[in-house]
Amino acid sequence: MNKKNLPKLTLILTGIKNRFLENETIFKEISVTYTSGLKHFTGKGIYNDDHKISFNFNGKTDLFTIDDLLQTIVNNSLSYDSLELIYSERGTNVLVTADDKNVNIKNINMTEKNSNKEKTSTLLNRNYLIKVGPADNLLKAIGIMTKDKKIKNDKIRKYNQIDHFIELIDSTLDTISRNKSITILDCGCGKSYLTFALNYYLTEVKRVKCRFVGIDISNAVIEKSKSIAASLGYRNMEFYAMDIHDYKPDEKINMVISLHACDTATDMALSLGIKLESDAIIAVPCCHKEMLSQYSYEPFKDILKHGIFKARLADVLTDGMRSLMLEANGYEVTPIEYISPLETPKNLLIRAIKKADTNEKAMDSYMKLMADLNVYPALYDFLQTYN
């Protein structure tokens, strides 16, 4: 290749290096094909856990830093007529071509490239955010799609719920991700299916730099989540088997999510989010037991003598007081019907965005309700007890 084009090639590859250093967790591989006459010589590099790249070329494999690898590629280019380099990361390929005449660079958005494969419009009259085609690997890993790329009939409802969840919090993601990377903590993560989908959407669709931490008391589900993350190459995810109260973050948490955590496990997650002053808290509560065994209200005694009424009001009081406590701690709260009540009565999503330090009026209302109802909610207890 003409030596006069080396400065331009070096400049372009410096941009590739900066891209890697800015967010190496989404790097997939780098390949380069040199051409000499009719012969082609290809090298391929993949990520190594030591933050290096294992590069195989001409039957030999070496470990390189990104800087050393790209410099080697530039040096080698002098021995060939042309080169084609593809830098692959989640959701995007960058194509660099160089020969005696010119050096060019082009981004290839994989979501757009595969958009013609979308086959989901017949499942529900909606424009999916997690689309069949671009998201095939994700959908297969979490059990939504078969190996031959068909959505499983018994998973259509689950697929719709996952996609709708992301749709509901999309504007919140925009609010907290402006001009920065974000860290999301999933409390009681279970198998983390929604979190994997959220990771895909943020990284490969919205192109937001993000990190995920999943915690759950069960070793089995944590190991399963680790396995799925490894199979997908999602290196921006960490999972820990531990109690929520024992988690100590090493950086700012921007969003805390708690999805279908049973009874007071939701309160544990909410209290942690409040204590960490998370920018946003998203909770989809599950069963409610605590309030039912505590509360009483004399004016309603002739109504609450019926167990079904007392149980339903306990659900409303539980999530209503949770929302009020979030408001008391400076959050703007929006309760949303997550899915149809025909599918499950536990269909509430609580979305909270940090707007202020505290709200004394809301706290006064909360304390009055505690007295009037003769209750001592777990959320209040956790906020007083755990540091």
Automatic annotation (TrEMBL):
* GO cellular component annotations of the record: cytoplasm
InterPro entries from the UniProt entry: Methyltranfer_dom, SAM-dependent_MTases_sf
- Domain of life from the UniProt record: Bacteria
What Gene3D superfamilies does the record point to? Vaccinia Virus protein VP39 (3.40.50.150)
User: What protein name applies here?
Assistant: Uncharacterized protein
Q: Where does this protein come from, organism-wise?
A: Clostridium felsineum
